[in-house]
Design goal:
The protein is α+β, with helices and mostly antiparallel strands and 153 residues long. It is built from five helices and four strands. It has a single domain, classed as NTF2-like, domain 1 (Nuclear Transport Factor 2, Chain: A).
């Protein structure tokens, strides 16, 4: 008769490796759905593209919300796009992203310890022809969420 080996080391090793792979897989999936700086910029421009300027305004950092009252922002933004330019929508593309340390929105303003500078190109087809606007948009954290700010220096 043969006895079974009491060496359970390969089984334990296999369970540990399997658990590690499962943890890595879960972290990978959660990383895909996490809201990072680029995600909030994408969401902001998606709302603007749809003409939902009120929802875009909600993604502003409170310092931006103080600078632009919601009603005024919605009215002016839609008036500029639709009234002046004669466009109903636009295409946009994120062309560059860079981490910035100790960034200020304006001279004498509060310093944001960490910001993400996201360069966005918007392409409009208007009654005056096609044109592109390139703007650096900054995403900063506020209460553990990424929010939009613009550079006013």
């Amino acid at each position: 008769m043969r006895r079974r080996s009491a060496n359970k080391l390969p089984l334990i090793f296999g369970v540990i490796v399997g658990m590690m792979l499962l943890i890595l897989f879960v972290r990978f999936l959660s990383g895909l759905s996490s809201d990072g700086p680029e995600d909030v910029v994408e969401e902001f421009y998606h709302y603007e593209q749809e003409g939902d300027f009120g929802s875009a305004w909600e993604l502003f950092h409170p310092v931006m919300q103080e600078r632009f009252a919601k009603n005024a922002y919605v009215t002016e933004r839609s008036h500029i796009y639709m009234g002046h330019y004669g466009v109903t929508t636009f295409k946009y593309e994120i062309i560059e992203k860079e981490e910035v340390q100790k960034w200020k929105m304006e001279k004498g303003g509060d310093e944001f310890p960490n910001a993400s500078k996201v360069t966005v190109e918007q392409t409009f087809k208007s009654k005056f022809g096609s044109f592109t606007i390139k703007q650096d948009v900054y995403a900063v954290q506020h209460e553990e969420e990424w929010r939009i700010v613009w550079d006013f220096k």
